[in-house]
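pasting input
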Amino acid sequence: MTIPPLPPRLTRIVPARTWPILTDIAVFASVLAGFFGFLTIVQYWFGGPTPQVEISRSVSALPVYAFYSVVRLSLAYALSLVFAISYGYIAAHNPRAEKIMLPLLDVLQSIPVLSFLPGVMLAMISLIPGRQLGVELGSILLIFTGQVWNMAFSFYSSLKAIPRELREASRIYNFSPWHQFLDLELPYGTIGLVWNSMVSVAGGWFFLMACEMFQLGKRDFRLPGLGSYLQTAASHGDTRAILLGLGTMIVVIVLLDQLIWRPVIAWSDKFKFEQTESTAVPRSPVLSFLRQSRALSILHSKTTGPIVERLSQGGHSKPAREKKRSGGRSAALWLMAALCAALVVYALVQCGLMLRELHVEDLVEILKGAAATFLRVNIALLIAALWTIPTGVAIGFHPRLARLAQPLAQIAASVPATALFPIILLALIRMGGGLGIASILLMLLGTQWYILFNVIAGAIAIPSDLKDVSRIFKFDQRERWLTLILPGIFPYLITGMVTASGGAWNASIVAEYFRFSDKLFTTIGLGAQISAATDAGRFNVLLLATIVMATVVVSINRLVWRPLYRLAETRYRLDA
Amino acid sequence: MTDRTAIIEARAVEKFYEQPDGNRIQVVAPTQFSIFPGEIVALLGPSGSGKSTLLRMLTGLSTPSAGEVLWHGKPMGSESPNVAIVFQSFALFPWLTVLENVAAPLKARGVDVAERKKRSMRVLDTVGLDGFEAAHPKELSGGMKQRVGFARALVVGPEILFMDEPFSALDVLTAENLRSELLELWQNKRIETQSIFIVTHNIEEAVLLADRIIVLGKNPGRIRTDFHLSLAHPRDRKARVFIEYVDYIYKVLTQPDAELDGRIGTLAKTRDPGKYQMLPHARPGGIKGILEMLTDQQGRIDVYRVAEELGLESDDLLPIVEATSLLRFVNVEEGDVEITPLGRQFSNADILEQKQIFREAALENVALLQQIQKALLNKSDRTMPDEFFRDILDEHFSQDESDRQMETAIDWGRYAEIFDYDAGTKRLFIADESDAGAAEVEA
């Protein structure tokens, strides 16, 4: 896709119009390819009942599988984006809804997504019976639930942070709500959305690997994709196929990074809310390539341009002054709230009935499991912190090392831990280790990167004045770490640890229970219990275990991370 | 004034916040005034006097708690008035170009693209921005950004151009330049606005620009004086009349409790201060600074000259003067500040003695500090959460104001070693167990 730049002499001979035509051809070709892909997907989705897809291990299947996986991920992401923006918008604009929506977001963020799997799948299959589409939509919905919350929260907080005078400017000039959304709110939230999207999509790969192939009771669900390819390859012990699958995945991830994320980051730079121009501006060759396309600019002026224009003018006749609440609307709202409350109560009663079938021993088992997983998560966090803090600080303090190490670390971090899991397990079992160790390793693989990247960022942010002070007064290593480095990186470290902790809990569901070449590996833990209950179709155990896990995660967030976070924001802020 | 019809009329508008316990925090007291065509009105006042609140009520951005705002005799809301605001922070959309920023209000009004561009370019030309239309705001200097702000306001041809401290984010020279250009445009009738309403805390700026000046008092915000200036443009800062106006406003502002009879130059007896004392937001360093300067200047000085010599805006200077007078280090009279014997003693003392003098003066004159000390001494562990005192303050002040009161009290309390504050636990405490006054021992 990237075309090498023409040598300077040639550009002078070649007429200036050549570039746009070349780009136009490329753009049309990609549109055509996209349409073809769409047709393929539709054909496969509506291809009739194919509950037992055979996953091929041949190389020729890989491109198609990779394509399927990417489409799944993209659809889930598109859904997340729309949902996140709507959710954030409503929460920021409606104070009454805000009171419910924010705590809800907090809880939803902490619920282990993979325990939704059976529920979502069964619902989807019964809604769309006999078609591959049901399973497909189920997996998309699952990935969606894994990536949407942080995006919604980011958009919400961006909206809340819009400077008062900018809001007033758009009100005094009677911007319609659409005009305000397009010219003020969306641009203001873009940068936060872009960064959170990257995190979310990385998380999406993690879940994609887990939900392309799984068992529910006696039913075996398989979706053709990279994840199922890797699992099949691993369970057949086919090393060549494993390596090919991994290679394909890395290529896809790197391509997505170059073709989507880099251009998007470069483009979103114009939405940075700053008074002066920064010196280091992100650049992307792909973006400048697209900007030169004449076809795209014509498309914009013929389609999106006029639509945006129409939307912006929607409210010019009526003034956007402070709204007065009408009685009729609030009555309808009350009715809706009552309806929602009734539904919630009904669901709670059903849950209660389901849980009553359980014995005390079940609860004891689950609590034991929770303790084991708690231990495992914290060991993983500890190990991650132990190696990432010195490494991250070393990288952050030495710019030359950073230039070398960062791209490598980024590639390593982008490989979803779930994809590597079969391979690691294979190796560990050959060496005689068990799943207990392997599951810690998996959590580590999935979550250490958050800590590493944050520590690097923190180390870079320590002002050189402070470093000079520690040098002038000849601090020894101990004093240097205790008074300069650790407090300096503290806010970043906490941010990284919070994300890592949530990720590790979620990972436990796939890490503690693993089916491999028809053999079952399991260890005691809450994650294993959730998976086992899913397998056996014991929904009451599943429900209880999920509730316990969500409670544990929410309480850890409230009791441990939030106070630490507040401390980081007040005492350890460097700019204050 | 009755022969002309007002564009806008504020009828007993006020703003207050109802506390949950039924207490009412009055931000702006019932206020009455009108704006007429052809005048530049400047609204002056110390911080916390509700200048911005008043501006937002007049423009319809905020609804008055009581009273009403009339546009051409009709209540606001029945029709949408054609107004524009120039903001202190410019409030430009950084992701839009200069042209798009200026055209945005026209887009909201449904003007088509070609017409939008034509009108925006014309205004950009007027404010001296031709050639910059494709630039983004972040590429421009502060002065240029505010020109974009002016262009965006002027493009809708507002009946009244509202300005909320439009020059205070700019450096002195840029502000001076923009001010005179605005005045020139206004006088040559090159901008289609019938009237200009400018909120400012810069006294000289008000006297330079305005045909009429309204001075607000604080706690609650209310009009203290409203007068017309009979001075031809361009105005000379060195002229005797100019200085008289500036002096008069300083007098009004330095005696917040004096009753005014409306005639310029006279101030009458002091109002009864029956209210909860409001701490002026000044730092001990500022108090020391002004006392040192007074000692150098034979103990008596005109407030206006202090501002000029220190290069301070009245907004920064007045709280310091007020605080120094509250502690009885100076007497303020008719716009002059005179040092008291105590003030002289403070000024000549060494650092520890200064703390001691400050401590005594503060505990004698500042009710809040007395309350805090008493409450802490009554506790066996000599520590209290700051929330306790914030609750007391909340009964008398708005949320922001009580935050500022607490901040100032903590600052003074720490300096005078009356108590200390732990920002982590948010508790006030007296450190020394045996004696409440560590300072006394040291001194």
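fyi Residues 51 and 219 of chain A are 9 Å apart (CA to CA).
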